[in-house]
Amino acid sequence: MLEISELRKRFAGGPDAPDGKLALDGIGFAVRPGRMFGFVGANGAGKTTTMRIVMGVLQADSGSVSWQGRPLRHDDRRRFGYMPEERGLYQKMRVAEQIAYFGRLHGMSAAAARKATEDLMERLGVAERRNDPVQALSLGNQQRVQLAVALVHDPEVLVLDEPFSGLDPIAVDALATALQERCGSGVPVIFSSHQLELVERLCDSVGIVAAGRMVATGAVAELRSAAGDTLRVVVRDAAPGWPDGLPGAVTVSGDRHILRTTSGDDQEILRRALKAGRVEHFGVERPTLTEIFKEAVT
Fold it and tell me: How does it sit in the membrane (predicted)?
């Protein structure tokens, strides 16, 4: 298990900010083997700083990162797969040559690196571009190559910073499938993303960070359940004033009156709605991760 505990980090300031910037203020979470953890937050919330500390690019002021119950070491990080926010590919290097080169940097033999490269290019859909320089590829294909670089040495942990940024739906599905395969083999996966629908679909658990603090964390289903249910009622051609006195808020869209409420007598609400017009929808809904995120960070 990968455990991040009470990370704090302050960057030095300048003349206009002598106290610097507090980037992390007690960030902590854990990712178990074979689980995918979605790390979400606004730009500047602390996601990239956390990942850089995990990978040893930055040093925390305090707190700890542990792997398998002991402090994370340099040798451990060599067995991790990392996809940085600023992509680290050599633009003039050919695709296959580049993936194999990074495999060699991780200590693989030339033969093992070549085999892993061929397997990954096929799986990620870039085999036909093996001899093209990276700069000739689309953004989506460059992302696939970057993921192959992170996967080539069969890492024990994956740490990916915005891996789905700017991808078309086909590329998203290819990357998502590759990550799910790694999770299925027991690899813990952490990735950050602004695409909350994707996080909700892929991740077992999620951490929501704001201003360097973890404001919500847990299994996606548990967070949705804890946020509470909302009764949504849609009435078409409703009589004016029908929801007067009922709890909740009503919005009007064309000939539809939409009532949302978290309290009240549902049978009374249904009776009023049926009397007012044609009930198009009456049901309980749980908030999406996007709605939970907006509530948590405001």
Answer: Peripheral membrane protein
Residue 152 and residue 42 share a domain? yes
Report in angstroms the alpha-carbon separations of 20 from 24, 49, 160, 297. Answer: 12, 15, 27, 22
Domain count, the chain: 2
- Do 209 and 268 lie in a common domain? no
Do 196 and 29 form a contact (C-beta atoms < 8 A)? no
Judged by phi (left if over 0) then psi (alpha if -120 to 50, else beta), residue 24 lies in: beta
Strand segments (E) across the chain: 2-11, 21-31, 36-40, 62-67, 70-71, 80-83, 157-161, 189-192, 205-210, 213-219, 230-236, 249-253, 256-261, 278-285
Q: Give the amino acid at 11.
A: F
pTM of the model as a whole = 0.80
pLDDT value at residue 19? 72
What are phi and psi for residue 221, nearest 5 degrees? -60, -40
138 lies in the same domain as 57: yes
Q: How far apart are CA 89 and CA 66, in angstroms?
A: 29
Whether 237 and 205 map to the same domain: the answer is no
Gap between the terminal Cα atoms of the chain: 31
User: What tokens does 185 get?
Assistant: 């083999």
Q: Which domain holds residue 277?
A: 227-297
Res 17 pLDDT > 70: no
Contact present, 279 and 191 (Cβ < 8 Å): no
pLDDT tens string 122-131: 988 899 999 9
By the 8 A CB rule, do 66 and 72 touch?
Answer: yes
